[in-house]
Amino acid sequence: MDPLTSGLLVVIGLFVLMAIGTPIAFALGGISLIALVASRGLPELTYFGETFYESIAHFGFVAIPMFIMMGAAVASSPTGRDLYRALDVWLGRVPAGLAVSNIGACSIFAALSGSSPATCAAIGKMGIPEMRQRGYPDGVAAGCIAAGGTLGILIPPSVTMIVYGIATETSIGRLFMAGVFPGFMLAGLFIVWTIIACRISGGYGGSVKAGVNQVANNVRANLDAIRRVLPFLAVVLGILFTLYGGVATPSEAAGAGAFLCILLAIVIYRMWDRQRLQLIFRDTLRESVMIMLIIAAAEIFAFALSSLFITQTLAEAIATMEVNRWVLMGIINVFLLVAGFFLPPVAVIVMTAPILMPIILNAGFDPYWFAVILTINLEIGLITPPVGLNLFIINGIAPEISLRDILLGSLPYALCMVLAIIILCFFPGIATWLPTTMMG
Amino acid sequence: QTTLRASHQWPGGQGDVRDEMVQILAREVAEADVGLEVQVYPGASLFGPKEQWGAIAQGRLDITALPLDYASGRHPEFSATLMPGLVRNHERAERLNDSRFMDMIKDVINEGGARVLADAWLAGAFASNERCITSPDSVEGQTMRAAGPAFDELLAAAGASIASMPSSEIYSAMQTGVLTGANTSSGSFVSYRIYEQVTCLTRPGENALWFMYEPILISERTWQRLNDEQREALMDAGQVAEEYFAAEAAGLDETLVDVFSENGVEVVGMSSEDYQAWLELAQQSSYQTFADNVPNGQELIDAALEVE
Amino acid sequence: MQPSKSSNGPATATPGGVAAAYIRLIDRLSVTTAVIAAGLLISGVVVVCQMIFVRYILNQSTVWQTEYTIYSITGAMMLGAPYVLLTKGHVAVTALPDFLGGRARVIMLTIGRLVGLGFCLALTYAAWYYVYEAWHLGWGTGTVWNPPLWIPIFPMAVAATLLCLQYIAEFLRGAP
Ligand code: NA
Ligand code: NA
Fold first, then answer.
1. H or E stretch including A289?
2. Would the pLDDT of A203 be above 90?
3. Torsion-angle region of residue B142: left (phi > 0), alpha (psi -120 to 50) or beta?
4. For A280, which residue in chain C has the nearest alpha carbon?
5. At what angle do helices A138-150 and A367-382 cross, to 10 degrees?
6. Among partner residues A69, A387, A403, which is closest to C45 by beta-carbon distance?
7. How far apart are CA B269 and CA B14, in angstroms?
8. Is B227 an 8 Å CB contact of chain A?
9. Chain C: touching chains (3 or more CB pairs < 8 Å)
10. Predicted local confidence at residue C175, as pLDDT
11. Which pLDDT value is given to residue C7?
12. What is the overall mean pLDDT for chain A?
């Protein structure tokens, strides 16, 4: 069988398995194992243990559960609430203030956590009920949290950037730096749309009338809140500093970050009771196991594609296409967008990086700039069906908001992301300036 | 038409000597026209660097080029192929290839389920940003990254601290002072631009401590499936690849010296006395451990040292 | 689209008798391995911090820390998998079955589970074979530290086995 036919069969098989509700990790692993055994015989099954273990036994991947632990420590402390209150006092009086605060809180929390669903859950738990209570439309409430949460993988630290760095042998510290300004730019675009959306739906989120007393109290509470959030932000800045300075590897920085954040949660928020600590570790374990199993399965899938010579055939076919590099970039974007609809970000990166990387480099694109483009594409996938991890989270937090409202509320934010990709194509410096300036 | 899959970890099509060796093997076999085709998977695009030996032994992979030391967890004898001071220089490496030492190593390779198509010994160097590394005294107090357990042990015995990390991290580790010295292959020193971070290079010349064996292997199971004509074609192709490598190996070291001196790095060599001092230290550290842990360890070391 | 709802613990009614006892036992085992996994995770974080201290502050050799961290974290990720299955945390796309509803949904989800079980059975066989090979042939990891290889890969075999048992428990619990 020629590689392209077998590739097509594998992809169809994967879709069928996923469509009937097989967990994504087992669907990826199962179809790959079938393809391997069918093409190369039973030894592929017998020696599968080593292949599976080696797919994730890598010092770089160690950083993933640790950055997730860091986020979980912050999330289970009242930091989210504090952040939120602080922003609310500042922004409560501007139009759509509360919704804007939510996106701000998401951006800051994104800097504390490596994962998008975690960011979405941490801020959404407070943000959505509060917004609904103050009369914001369901669509805006759900949409701004779903979209704001996606910043978790663009603003460093980022689980997907780690996977990209390992898959393409690029510097993870540099990748983190590349995400900073695009992350804030995207947050800005989200804010602009949120204000417009509130206007359109009838001027929701007007200023809150507050008495003088209340403002004074608020300011005091605000300062208090900031004081308690600052140490966490200091840890994050410390981590970024050690990473861009090349002082520590990402895994070392992640380990220290996780340790310090748990320590801070215990010290500042006095979370020394067993139950709350247990909660941190349970959340960390659940999310990181889910992600790591998908990574392992995606690695197996990539191995199967390579073993069947599908990767090489595809890469060569694309490389020999005589098209303008921006047309090529357009095609790649559409491809990533479609892949992101169906697969979680880490899976898309593991599966496509070996094919895309040589093409990107050949066409003269910067691999760090491309990482940002790739990440934003995959962020879109987080808020679009059928596999939109952030949509699942919102649905879990606020089951009373209809799926239709969540989807319609999120869609404009997906368009903001498309706009961000276009802006980045015209001004690549937004992504490349910081890493170049800081790391030479 | 039989297709054999060849895997290695180095970048493909960018002039890496080890990639070129495998490509030459593939070209020669194709030209022999014996119904055999070699498909090369460079850059660890099929199996990971450390999975290759297992895949060869299991018959899942046909051909590989790899640092044999990677398989020393399964065959501890292979540590002898990244053992300080056993090789010394390229001329001696060629004599070593036909010695009792290599016969013993190749016996272990064969028992493990593989067969050697081409020999290749790669030289490496030391570099430091603290002081030139010549005698054992010169590493005392330095923090070193060394490739391989035997070197770690020797350097530790000489009074250095060891930090284990992949060679891709040497650059930033030196930049931030985590390392003061490093030890890796000539090629890696150049490709990771280590010259930007060091003040002194100890070139691999007459007396090089660091040599690593990176042969091209074929799986025994694959070998048994081939006919005589195909086997002969593979052996001949392996010979061509080996000769190509032998001619290039010294050139790698020259490039290293050129690039480093162009960038203002002091380049020194190791004297015979320094070399002997290292050997004596090795006798008490890494050789000793190797002899203790590996059944015929002492015999292997003696066999390597007895080569003229 | 119904995965990773943050529901914890098994849902739906449980059957009685032997099946119920089996389900209770397996659930408890999955929770136990999850606790071990959390312990490994914490130990990995602590060892990384210790490594940073030894390497950057004391300027001394760090020989085993990197390797230990890889093994403990990878082991934790494997051992946490049955618990994640128990608490329905593995992401799946159930949009199509949910849309179709009724018998079609039950059939689809059952096949989906069988595929999952099939993969876990294959992994169980392969993982135990790998452990057996590593143990029987006395393989090490080939580093200075060089611990026996079967120790770090043992959690994978345990986790794969428990995943199969947990899948069977999910079948016994009924309700796809
Ligand atoms: Na983040
Ligand atoms: Na999606």
1. helix A274-307
2. no
3. beta
4. C38
5. 150
6. A69
7. 30
8. no
9. A, B
10. 60
11. 40
12. 87
